[in-house]
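Lab meeting, item 3. Inverse folding demo.
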């Protein structure tokens, strides 16, 4: 499913919110590797990423520690700049302030999309490159593989949290709509947690439908007398593992704000 120039190295930090662990993606180019989300501060994980070759630069999809905690250490080990939308996360690199902007790398086409919602600083990255083989001058004309690096905006399994108050549901729905409008059946989903999926467009469509269904469930819980995020969670998420209820409360708080704004 992944071309030879795209490697996935999974950090050993499994959990209810990280699923199997944080996926670090390493994209090989003629100028060095582009690393997406070096992940938590686990030396063995960083060593595995560095073993794949010199790093040109690192990109953070957002500020949560399971994605960014190792950024300073990774910069120390590689000397490679760290890029992010939040200037506080950048290290010797540019702030990704321009939406729908290209990253200047040889062999691959990378484009940064601002996709707030999970967090205010969440980004996704479109990547286009040759479907097979290594990168290099001989493969440069073939841009027939399309991937979407989604961070936590879209996961490979289950759904993500809208991390209220930093994350906002209205922004998140708009981001999902935007992604759906850019994707077709030829896109591969490269999430930061869970498996790679060949059906990126379908997954995003399912995410939108799920969010609308949850909103209807929140409305029903309010009509039944719930008044706080916790009370809504006890109704709407009654069949969900309680270990994720704190995250569900944040998503419900975002939903309540979203509904209040529309009264």
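The presenter then showed the designed sequence:
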């Amino acid at each position: 499913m992944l071309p030879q120039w795209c490697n996935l190295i999974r950090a050993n930090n499994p959990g209810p919110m990280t699923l199997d662990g944080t996926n670090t993606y390493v994209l090989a180019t003629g100028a060095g590797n582009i690393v997406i989300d070096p992940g938590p501060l686990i030396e063995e994980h960083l060593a595995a990423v560095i073993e794949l070759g010199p790093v040109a630069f690192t990109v953070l999809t957002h500020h949560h520690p399971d994605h960014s905690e190792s950024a300073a250490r990774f910069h120390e080990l590689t000397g490679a700049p760290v890029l992010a939308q939040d200037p506080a996360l950048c290290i010797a690199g540019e702030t990704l302030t321009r939406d729908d902007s290209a990253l200047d790398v040889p062999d691959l086409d990378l484009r940064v999309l601002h996709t707030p919602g999970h967090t205010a600083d969440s980004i996704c990255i479109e990547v286009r490159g040759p479907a097979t083989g290594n990168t290099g001058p001989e493969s440069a004309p073939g841009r027939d593989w399309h991937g979407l690096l989604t961070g936590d905006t879209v996961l490979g399994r289950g759904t993500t949290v809208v991390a209220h108050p930093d994350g906002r549901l209205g922004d998140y729905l708009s981001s999902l709509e935007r992604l759906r409008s850019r994707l077709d059946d030829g896109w591969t989903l490269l999430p930061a947690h869970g498996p790679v999926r060949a059906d990126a467009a379908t997954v995003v469509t399912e995410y939108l439908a799920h969010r609308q269904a949850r909103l209807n469930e929140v409305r029903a819980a309010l009509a039944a007398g719930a008044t706080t995020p916790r009370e809504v969670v006890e109704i709407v998420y009654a069949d969900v593992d309680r270990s994720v209820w704190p995250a569900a409360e944040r998503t419900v708080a975002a939903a309540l704000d979203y509904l209040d704004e529309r009264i």
